[in-house]
Amino acid sequence: MFLISRLLAVPMAALALLLLTACGGGSGTSGDTGRLSLYVTDAPVDSAEKVVVAFTGVQLKPADGEPIRRSVCENDNSPGCENGMRKIDLLQLTGDESAALLEDEVLPAGRYEWIRLEVLTSQTSAENSFIVIDGTARPLWVPSGDQTGLKLVRGFTVPASGVASFTIDFDLRKSIANPQGPFADTYFLRPALRLVDNSLTGHLKGEVAADLIEGEACLGTESPGSGIVIVYVFEADGATGHATEPEDAVTSAKVDSENVGDDTLLYSYRVGFLAAEEDGTEYLVQLWCETTVEGTTEGIALAERFAIIVPDDTTTLDLVLDDAIEEKISD
Description:
Number of strands: 23
Low-confidence stretches: 1-30
Structural class: mainly beta
Shape: globular
Largest sheet: 11 strands, mixed
Strand content: over 45%
Number of domains: 2
Distance between the termini: 99 Å
Helix content: 10-25%
């Protein structure tokens, strides 16, 4: 009797495994895919009214396979799409604003090595991608863009039966250049792209004291030229007053002004999509004044504070005269 039970045990176990698999409880394909959403945002550039980029598709490279392509337009009825492209004005996506390139796109689950954004640009035509300066549209060109697009070499994971959501930050302040010479009317776009996980990002906003901006060290200067006030966000190293350079900033935001009556201006800023750990991540926030005189731009840091950014939240950090970097203010 014992021998018969042992002989029957193997086929019964196999039958149970077969039934479990048929019901979806085994290693079927339900967990072999995940969903990906991909957005774009921007840290603004000075002296431009529009920065329009024409996107056509996204390529994603699995760690163990060939690149996968997805179109940003299902058809010309898709929002913002025409002739297979989607034109996005990046200057409308400052602060915590963003626009979707892909939403809930089904992809094989697993690790991916890079993202490539397909764009249409031209060195001589402003038909697709362009920048508007002083009311005139000028060509916006990505060198080798037609062949290689905009590539972001940063690994990420699409979880099995899960959702991944990322935002790509175009830091236009670092990315756009006008080389002059034979292409004086063409602007080059060499983006400094930053990829952030939307589940681990927070935002930053605040007001800025008029005394910091309108004082002699910035817009109140008697020197001729144009002044622009910028908030730069740096990785914190635990100490204030340390040497910082704008090109080392994680991201930046232009300080906006609003007339609240009696010729009084209210100054404020918004910075979006800062990477944040679950228990908070510290950043150094600095207020800079940049003035341009005869084509030469000079900048000084006026004030600084630390900010703790936590996921899925907006931290409010006002910059007041007490935050002033005195030696810079007195220069």
